[in-house]
């Protein structure tokens, strides 16, 4: 019989579960790569948000220059105030403020005019001085407030987007994790089903190779075991119960079944448990055992016959006696398909020679040894 078929490969539930957990890690990695650049863009010291810091510094320089001009009267005060105005002007004069805020351009012109006057040593009167500096300071204050609002809006948007992405990561992670568990469970379930199917197949195969009454092998099992010993030197014994039909007729089939089981135990004991036993059908058995020497074969055949004789199992309708007897034919062969077929025929012929000579004995087939040396045993 051919070896058991391999269990059908189950769907790749294990791979699906691994892919699910891999997708989970990729999702987390992606979200991490999304969050980090946005944090950097929103809260670093680069980009549009620096506008607030520049406006603040510029406003502070202009306020310092105004304080110097209004509060100090020493000769260096004008020069120091002019320097502060230049610093404030430089931080005020950027593209972001020119493009986004309408008050930038006119106030830069006011600062230019004021700085020119200071460069010539002319300090405007307090009213003109205040007008020339307070208007740019007011503009810079508006810019600061607008930049603060912009920063707040950006921060709020970032927080909302972060919360949204965190929710997506949480939900996605939970779904992927649950899918991974489901896939893993399906893998385990399918694996168990495959194992169960394999065990069931092996059980049916074992039953197909076993005689249900005696528990020993059947004809198919004998054939498989011979093929498994390919090339080995083996002995085959064919064993027949003498007048088994008369035994069943006299005592009934239940007693006949019991006799078969008892004979299996006796044959196994006679062969010292070294042989594999088979029921070929009805009242015929076979024994297969390693055999490198024809004398071993003759000894095995004689032991089987003698063991049953010693057991003295009653046979009420035995034509030639009162106890159960056996007829045995044996042959030595090399375990190959063609050689086994020929050996079986030779053993069967030897068995029928025993029957023709009155049963209760054994003979060896001519293919194993010379019949002149190991012809038969007497009753």
Automatic annotation (TrEMBL):
Record CDD domains: GGDEF (cd01949)
Residue ranges occupied by any GGDEF domain in the UniProt entry: 232-367
Coiled coil: none
Domain of life according to the entry: Bacteria
Catalytic activity entry: 2 GTP = 3',3'-c-di-GMP + 2 diphosphate
Documented EC number(s): 2.7.7.65
GO terms (BP aspect): cell adhesion involved in single-species biofilm formation; negative regulation of bacterial-type flagellum-dependent cell motility
GO MF annotation list: diguanylate cyclase activity
Chain segments annotated as transmembrane: 12-30, 167-186
UniProt keyword terms in alphabetical order: Membrane, Nucleotidyltransferase, Transferase, Transmembrane, Transmembrane helix
Xref: SMART domains: GGDEF (SM00267)
GO annotation, cellular component aspect: plasma membrane
Enzyme class, broadest EC rank: transferase
Protein name: diguanylate cyclase
The species this protein was found in: Halomonas lysinitropha
Gene from which the chain derives: ycdT_1
């Amino acid at each position: 019989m051919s070896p058991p078929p391999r269990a059908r490969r189950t769907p790749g539930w294990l791979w699906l579960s691994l892919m699910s957990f891999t997708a989970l890690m990729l999702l987390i990695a992606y979200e991490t790569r999304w969050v980090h650049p946005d944090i950097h863009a929103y809260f670093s010291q680069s980009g549009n948000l620096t506008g607030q810091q520049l406006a603040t510094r510029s406003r502070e320089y202009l306020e310092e220059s105004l304080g110097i001009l209004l509060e100090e009267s020493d000769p260096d005060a004008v020069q120091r105030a002019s320097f502060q105005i230049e610093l404030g002007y430089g931080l005020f004069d950027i593209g972001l403020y020119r493009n986004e805020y309408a008050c930038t351009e006119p106030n830069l012109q006011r600062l230019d005019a004021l700085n020119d006057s200071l460069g010539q040593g002319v300090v405007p009167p307090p009213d003109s001085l205040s007008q020339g500096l307070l208007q740019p300071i007011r503009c810079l204050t508006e810019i600061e407030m607008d930049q603060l609002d912009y920063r707040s809006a950006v921060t709020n948007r970032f927080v909302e987007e972060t919360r949204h992405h965190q929710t997506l990561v949480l939900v996605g992670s939970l779904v992927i994790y649950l899918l991974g568990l489901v896939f893993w469970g399906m893998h385990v379930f399918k694996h168990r089903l495959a194992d169960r199917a394999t065990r069931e197949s092996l059980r049916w195969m074992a039953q197909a190779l076993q005689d249900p009454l005696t528990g020993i092998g059947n004809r198919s099992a004998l054939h498989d075991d011979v093929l498994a010993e390919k090339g080995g030197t083996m002995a085959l014994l064919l064993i027949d119960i003498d007048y088994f039909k008369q035994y069943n007729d006299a005592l009934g089939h239940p007693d006949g079944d019991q006799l078969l089981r008892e004979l299996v135990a006796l044959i196994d004991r006679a062969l010292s448990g070294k042989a594999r036993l088979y029921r070929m059908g009805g009242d015929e058995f076979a024994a297969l055992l390693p055999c490198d020497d024809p004398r071993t074969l003759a000894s095995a055949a004689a032991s089987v016959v003698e063991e049953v004789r010693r057991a003295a199992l009653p046979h009420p309708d035995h034509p030639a006696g009162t106890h159960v007897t056996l007829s045995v034919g044996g042959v030595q062969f090399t375990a190959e398909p063609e050689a086994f077929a020929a050996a079986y025929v030779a053993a069967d012929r030897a068995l029928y020679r025993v029957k023709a000579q009155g049963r209760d004995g054994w003979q060896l087939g001519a293919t194993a040894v010379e019949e002149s040396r190991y012809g038969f045993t007497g009753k």
